[in-house]
Amino acid sequence: MTGEFDEIRRLIDLLAALPGLGPVSSRRIVLQLLKSRQGRLMEISEAMRRASEAVQICTACGNFCAGQLCTICRAADRDNGEICVVQDISDLWAMERSSAFKGRYHVLGGVLSMLDNVGPEDLRIPELENRVVKEGISEVILALGTTVDGQTTAHYIADRLAQADVRVTSIGRGVPMGGELDFLDDGTITAAMQGRREY
């Protein structure tokens, strides 16, 4: 594709870079959108523009929100002294979908990884330590994936919180080795939360 198709190629390439989409799926999506450009394409374009302007990051937990704090952090009935630590926002959403946890969350923004040059300074670990002290947290639940990087991160956080007056637990049974929360079904997440163990 050249000339007048450069815009189409760019749109396909942008979509193909998203998780779960490849060149073939992206091409199909773009073709379908362009066929109905007065309908879905314009609606999606407008929705993406509005989201880009309105969506912010919660200053407390790292979730998406429309103001300074997300609805979970603002909810009085979620202030039960428990914080569930997750790798990414998609993991937080997976936990919420399962209804297995009724406390608050803390999104790290990734996991420690030597291969990807992600160190402690690149994650929201200091913010977690501050919350444990300031919010009087009684339990920190490490709900990180059972990948090597996820478990390395969990060990690091547990060591950092060892001197704090807080119980540190990890989600338990049901999570397969190498598993990530976003890909687990609701029942597995619920079982893992109920079977959490001391770290």
Could you list some keywords that capture this structure?
alpha/beta, 7 strands, two-stranded antiparallel ribbon, five-stranded mixed beta sheet, about 200 residues
Describe the structure.
This protein is α/β, with parallel strands linked by helices. It contains 8 helices and 7 strands, in the order αααββαβαβαβαβαβ. It has helices at residues 6-16, 23-35, 37-54, 71-74, 89-98, 125-134, 148-160, 186-194; strands spanning 56-57, 64-65, 82-86, 104-107, 139-142, 167-170, 197-198. A hairpin with a 6-residue loop joins β1 (56-57) and β2 (64-65). It is elongated and about 60 Å long. It starts with 5 loop residues before the first helix and ends with a strand. 26% of the residues are buried. The mean pLDDT is 86.
Secondary-structure blueprint:
Layout: H1 6-16, H2 23-35, H3 37-54, E1 56-57, E2 64-65, H4 71-74, E3 82-86, H5 89-98, E4 104-107, H6 125-134, E5 139-142, H7 148-160, E6 167-170, H8 186-194, E7 197-198
Parallel strand pairs: 3-4, 3-5, 5-6
Antiparallel strand pairs: 1-2, 6-7
Helix pairs in contact: 1-2, 5-8
Summarize this entry quickly.
The protein is an alpha/beta fold and 199 residues long.
The spatial strand order of the largest sheet comes to 4-3-5-6-7
Category from helices, strands and their pairing: alpha/beta
Number of separate helices: 8
The helix/strand order is: HHHEEHEHEHEHEHE
- Low-pLDDT runs of 5+ residues are none
The portion of residues forming beta strands comes to 5-15%
Characterize the largest beta sheet: strand count, sense, and whether it forms a barrel.
5 strands, mixed
